[in-house]
Every structure is written in C-alpha cells, then in structure tokens.
Design brief:
By secondary structure, the protein is mostly helical. It has helices at about 35-55, 70-80, 85-95, 100-125, 135-140, 140-160, 170-190, 200-225, 235-255, 255-260, 265-270, 275-300, 310-324; strands spanning about 10-15, 20-25, 130, 135. It has 13 helices and 4 strands. It is globular.
Amino acid sequence: MGLMAPLSDFCIYASSAPALRIFLTVTPGTPPHPMNTTTDSALLTVERLMVGLVRVAAGTGVPAGEPATLRAAQYHLEAGGQRVRARLALHACEALGVVGDQAVRLAACVELLHNASLVHDDLQDKEKLRRGRPTVCAAFGPDVALCTGDLLLSAAYGALADLPDPTHLPALLRCVHARTAQVIQGQCSELATKDYALAEVARYEEIVVGKSGVLLSLPLELAFLAACQEQWLPRIRDAAHAFGIGYQMVDDLEDVPGDAAQHSLNIVLLLAAGRPPELAADQARQLARGHLEAAIEHADALPNKAGALLTEFAFALVKRVKSA
C-alpha cells in the first residue's frame, strides 16, 4: 500500500550542503495555478523553518558532533518531495486572508507531521528506499529512525509555538492532536491487516482515511480555524477524506504486483477475491472516480476558492484513473 504517489509535476529538491538550498522545478508546459507564484515563494520559507525547528538540539549533548537524530531529520527533509500538504495549507491561507508567518507556520506544522509519519512508516514496513535514496531507517538504523520520527513530530508542535496571532492556538492544537491520533490508529489498523485478509471495502476506506485522509484535511482545517471559519470543517473533512481514498485507490491500481509480493493492503487485491483480476481493476477504477468526483464537489463548495488546489489535484488523478 504505497501511500501518496506523485500528484503533479511540482517537486522540491534540497542540496546536502551545509546551507540548505532548495530548487523548485516545474515540467515545461505545465500550466501554473493562479496562486502558485505566491505559494512557491512561501514554500521556501516553510522549508527553512522546518530545518530550523529540527535543529533546536544542535550543539547539545554530543561533544563529538551533531546528534544523529538531527542529521537524520535533515537528511530526510533534504530528500525533497512534493510538499502537497504545505501547498494546500498555504493556498487555503492565502484564499482566506491568513498571511505571512501565520500561514508559513501552519504549513510547516502539517508537513512535519506528514514527514514524521513517513519515517515511522518506513521503519515499521522495513522500507529500503524513499524518494530515490535510502530511508532514514536504512541509512541510520532503526533506533535513530524511531527517534527521528519523534523529533519531526515534536517539531510540528514547535511550529505553532510562535504563531504571530495565538488567538486560535487552543483550537489549532486540539485539531493537530486529534489528527495525529487518527494517523497513529490508521497505521496500527493497516499493520493489523498483515495478519488477516481484509474483505470489506468499507474497512479499507476507514484505514485509508486514517492513514492519509486526515493529514490531507488538516492543512485546510488549520487555515479555516485561523480564519475563524470553523463551520466549514465538516465539508473540508468530506472533501479530503474522499480525495485520500481516491488517491490511494489510484496508487493501488498502479502497484498491484508490488503490493501482492509484499502482502500489502491494496483495493484491487481485496476486490479480486473470487473474481477475475480485470473485473476487480475495473471496479477499483469506478470506486476511485466516484471518490475523486465527490472530493471535487465538496472542495468546490468551500468559500473564496480555498479548496481550488485540492480540486486541481483531484482532476489530475481522474485523468490517471483512465490510464491505470
């Protein structure tokens, strides 16, 4: 169950030089989103903030050099990625008038949470590669990987500590804690499926929402909470959860052999029980399209086009469904 396959042609690459350097690349011919210029600029600030937050332990406790967890966290962040959750947060913040360091810190918070989950996932799944190079677990060992995930998780809360406007901090913290708890439960639920064959689509969808859907809703939820528009939170969750399920199903369709070899949770393998694989794949495509169309409908209903970027991602995935 490879979570979070590529969404777009946007990626961030960071050098391994002492001073963090970030390169934004967009494939030629890719039409820019109306808000991408501002968002891309703010992403550089998010990137620097994340590194600064994990470096709070620099120079303490280890006379012979920097702590291994600090080096591992920076190694993981420098591997780059799409920063989808940070982009969703920044886009929604701009649409709702949440600006400057307030928006940057909300974006850094959700991106750090996501990356903490990746480090822990790779540890538990014994993954060797991520983003084309050894995982933290493979490069630094399981003990350091465990502590590195914890450091990134702690840094996410640190991002909220210095919000310029702390008015809504209690609500933001409650939301972050609730989504973090759901991600943990989702991971535990997925790990349990390795011991028994999952037979219900509804249960599959519950696990996917816990594993990925909640960290796709969190960027928008934080933006709306900061903008005093909490009445939209149920709609946000409907959009993000539907998107997360559709997203995972598309990924499953493209990775059936790999998931079968690793006995990983996969919607096509689940549906293939007692029926031809071609029919199972067709049904998976129909389910994926249905969830993505629901995500588009819910995201489009959000005010000020705050869900426009999620809609854009969902449309891109609908196109991928046809070729999967």
